Amino acid sequence: LVVSYFTERPKLPENYTHDTWQKLHEAVGAIQSSISIKYNLEELYQAVENLCSYKVSATLYKQLRQVCEEHVKAQILQFREYPFVVHRNDSLDSLLFLKKINKCWQDHCRQMIMIRSIFLFLDRTYVLQNSMLPSIWDMGLELFRNHIISDKQVQTKTIDGILLLIERERNGEAVDRSLLRSLLSMLSDLQQVYKESFEQRFLEETNCLYAAEGQRLMQEREVPEYLHHVNKRLEEEGDRVITYLDHSTQKPLIACVEKQLLGEHLSAILQKGLDNLLDENRISDLTQTYQLFSRVKGGQQILLQHWSEYIKNFGTTIVVNPEKDKDMVQELLDFKDKVDHIIEVCFQKNEKFINLMKESFETFINKRPNKPAELIAKYVDSKLRAGNKEATDEELERILDKIMIIFRFIHGKDVFEAFYKKDLAKRLLVGKSASVDAEKSMLSKLKHECGAAFTSKLEGMFKDMELSKDVMVQFKQYMQNQSDPGNIDLTVNILTMGYWPTYTPMEVHLNSEMIKLQEVFKTFYLGKHSGRKLQWQTTLGHAVLKAEFKEGKKEFQVSLFQTLVLLMFNEGDEFSFEEIKMATGVEDSELRRTLQSLACGKARVLIKNPKGKDVEDGDKFIFNGDFKHKLFRIKINQIQMKETVEEQVSTTERVFQDRQYQIDAAIVRIMKMRKTLGHNLLVSELYNQLKFPVKPGDLKKRIESLIDRDYMERDKDNPNQYHYVA
């Protein structure tokens, strides 16, 4: 194949460049004057392409720039003629000026788009190949910026006018948002004008406005209204960014509002209103508080501190006041429910708030040592007793779970154990437990919380009850083989001494039939288990008595002491206090309680003479033959379940006694291992090992006691140093 050279490129007609430019110049003029163009746009586009093909691009670009520049320069005159002596409050004049500058900008943009479409070939070839040259559109922006917006008077008046409009909108007036949007996008398009000339002044004015507003409204408004206002302001400013401000302004603008309306007043807001919001459980206001405070640096931290203080102060009022002891545990549970709900709903389950709440509970609940532990044990007792109001097992289980949460905060768990053990013993022995399942569920919760050592004795009590049932089955069979089985049905619970609370033995005068039955059981039991010793505990014995009245037969569920008193009335109708005391052998205060329950309670089987609430020396008691009651079997032995003051004191004393033994054992253990130790190190080691609260003074006493008993000795040269004595 032979490729022949192309023919020479045709030359342009002589005046083609000049004539074509005149045609293009005329078209640009028509666009700038907003009149119709004589020529076809396609024809104009082709003309530009032709010129560019013949290396006239540089001249063409220069000529176009010159024409555009002359036109833009001419535009400034209309603003020069405009009156510039305008105050910020002369808003009408300012608005007219803004509309005029906006129209000028809109016209300029429209014209440059049109011009660019004609000179598109130039823009996409020559301009693109010369990186130093701005595109036709950018050239237009540059000219507008240099000759109009950079004019000092025009720029000042434009920005003053925009700021005035925004201020009016912030004060609640309706303004032309599309005008603002157009003007601010103009400043953004003109590159640094927005940042350097507008944004800086806008943020300064915003800062001043909200600083003054924050100070004023903090004085005038209540906290919920103030926070509501802050929220409203943040939403408004956010909306401004979306509607007409440049997106880059969002961060500094919102930060400015947060700082002036929130950051400057964090402590004041919480001191003025947090306690009220929490007291009144105002969930939506608390949610808003949390959300707003989370936006500000250090806001959550200060909210945490006030939250903790509130819990401690409120909790302390529940725990410290002895008059509130009756309802203390229920109030603690209600308070815990309330703070849990606030954390879940308002504080978005924030871990920091949860952990601080736990610490605060632990702090206030241990401000009053021992009593909360005792009252929690009694509360559990009231729920596990037969006849409580919690209908379903699920409800009871839920309450026990809540109790365990409060129990966790307590330091002196040994106090709880002592009272729980005493009450459990009564429930088991007097047959007053609501459900074995609930009892065992509580036991497993305690075991999980405190370990097997804590519950081993309590588990032993249940084991004794199970074994006693088996023993009684064998005893019933044994009795059937007796020649004279008697007409009293005896049930005995055999208790292992170490597991159960210690009871003071009380010698009472049982009737011959009871004594005989006791002996029969003793013979039977010791025959099976030689080497064991039985000690009869009368205080928790109970019986079912059959009685006849004028109205008919009744059955009474009574304590052993009540039984002994009532059986006397088979021998006579009237006895004095002294006679009853002599006959029964029941201890004085116990007998007074027993007679009170029979003659002054709801079911008055006896009549006391003279009448009165308390049993005095010399009072006489008469059998009430006219006794009436709607039930056939009547329980009068609730008295056994009630705790006496003596019982309460002795349980507490026993805990303190046990603590002394534990301290002694811990000291000896540490000294045996270390051989020689300074006082401060020994005390800190003890605090690590002991599971109950103890004062340094008490530890000192125990150390002195052990020195006296030759378990350890002081160093001869240094009295603060101890040595273990092997």
From TrEMBL:
InterPro entries: Cullin (IPR045093), Cullin-like_AB (IPR059120), Cullin_CS (IPR016157), Cullin_homology (IPR016158), Cullin_homology_sf (IPR036317), Cullin_N (IPR001373), Cullin_neddylation_domain (IPR019559), Cullin_repeat-like_dom_sf (IPR016159)
Pfam families referenced in this protein's UniProt entry, alphabetically: Cullin, Cullin_AB, Cullin_Nedd8
Keyword Protein biosynthesis: no
SUPFAM superfamilies linked: Cullin homology domain, Cullin repeat-like, Winged helix' DNA-binding domain
GO biological process: cellular response to UV; developmental process; DNA repair; proteasome-mediated ubiquitin-dependent protein catabolic process; protein ubiquitination; regulation of protein metabolic process; rhythmic process; ribosome biogenesis
Domain (Cullin family profile): residue spans on this chain: 371-599
PROSITE patterns: CULLIN_1 (PS01256), CULLIN_2 (PS50069)
Statement: the UniProt record of this protein carries the keyword DNA repair: yes
GO cellular component, one term: Cul4A-RING E3 ubiquitin ligase complex
Pathway linked to the protein: Protein modification; protein ubiquitination
GO molecular function: ubiquitin protein ligase binding
Keyword terms of this UniProt record: Biological rhythms, DNA damage, DNA repair, Host-virus interaction, Isopeptide bond, Phosphoprotein, Ubl conjugation, Ubl conjugation pathway
PANTHER family: CULLIN (PTHR11932)
Family that this chain belongs to: Belongs to the cullin family.
Protein name: Cullin-4A
